[in-house]
Amino acid sequence: MAQTAQPADLVMPSAPGAGAPGASGGWLWHWRAWQAQVRWAATTQQIARWLGGVSPGSTELLLIGASGGWMMSSAWLQRFRSVRAFDLDRWSAPVFRYRHGAALQQSRTTLVYQQLDALRYLPQLLRTYPDAFVLFDNVLGQLRFVHKRIDAAEAQLHAITRTLRGREWASVHDAYSGRVGASASQATPALGPLQTVRPRSVAGALPQFSIAERQWCAQIGVQGAWLDHLTAGVFPAGTPIQHMAWSFSREHRHWLQAAWVRA
Ligand SMILES: C[S@@+](CC[C@H](N)C(=O)[O-])C[C@H]1O[C@@H](n2cnc3c(N)ncnc32)[C@H](O)[C@@H]1O
């Protein structure tokens, strides 16, 4: 399923740890997200429902890749006493405050929003906030656009999951993305299957696609080769994982995966 072409809409700068937002940051991204709210609504609701089942032990949240919180649920954020949000993009904080600020004030949740390469500084963040729950909010699937080499992206993803060992965390991220057929592009994607992450082979290879995943590909209208976002090994074996589809544009869909990893 992997291909090398990158969807122009999501291409990030090629310099590792560039510290600057790609096309999923910047005012143009927020303009697009604002325009796409209706098309994205079904996925936003699915994410909200999934988050509703995520009830971490901590009352502190580190929200990484928060952007403007375009697909984030205010109701879920309200369960925390403090939310520390991070994004590379300087336009994100005001948008996030505009979208979620009132709800957070109502629940007396403190919001601190910082422009930071939070993936690079993840070890420091985890040390500084040792009890906080961490949510990667559609950011881990973007690492393949940050690095020139695929193995460098894979190595960073691996380092991130190693750093998180023993911590309670969750992630929603792109697994694959690509074009869909004309009939699928008209339909609102249904919620995908809920599965358990299967273990790697003894040699360390990732498992093949399951029957449910293959059926899911057909349901969401996968056409041609889809881009592999290299996140297949992010969640540990045994973690329940929810599949979802995101109609990014009319012809382009993302296969999202969401899971809550308990400490
Ligand atoms: C697809 S968007 C996230 C969308 C967001 N969750 C929402 O609901 O609107 C990905 C975001 O991750 C941010 N990002 C990418 N790499 C990052 C990093 N290393 N540290 C912090 N933010 C990062 C991008 O700037 C972008 O705003």
Write a brief caption for the model:
The chain has 263 residues and is α/β, with parallel strands linked by helices. It has nine helices and nine strands. α4 (92-106) links the parallel β2 (82-87) and β3 (110-115).
What does this molecule look like?
The structure is a single chain. The chain is an alpha/beta fold. The protein has one domain (8-261): Rossmann fold, CATH 3.40.50. It has helices at 26-35, 37-52, 74-77, 92-106, 122-128, 143-146, 150-163, 182-186, 211-220; strands at 60-64, 82-87, 110-115, 133-137, 169-179, 194-196, 227-228, 240-247, 252-261. Strands 1, 2, 3, 4, 5, 6, 7, 8 and 9 form a nine-stranded mixed beta sheet that branches. It is globular. Mean pLDDT is 89; it is low at 1-22. S-adenosylmethionine (SAM) is lined by residues 21, 24-25, 64-65, 67-72, 86-89, 92, 117-119, 137-139, 142. Residues 21, 24-25, 64-65, 67-72, 86-89, 92, 117-119, 137-139, 142 line the site of S-adenosylmethionine.
Our count of domains comes out at 1
The CATH topology assignment is Rossmann fold
**Can you summarize the main beta sheet?**
9 strands, mixed
As a percent range, the share of strand residues is 15-25%
Helix-strand pattern: HHEHEHEHEHHEHEHEEE
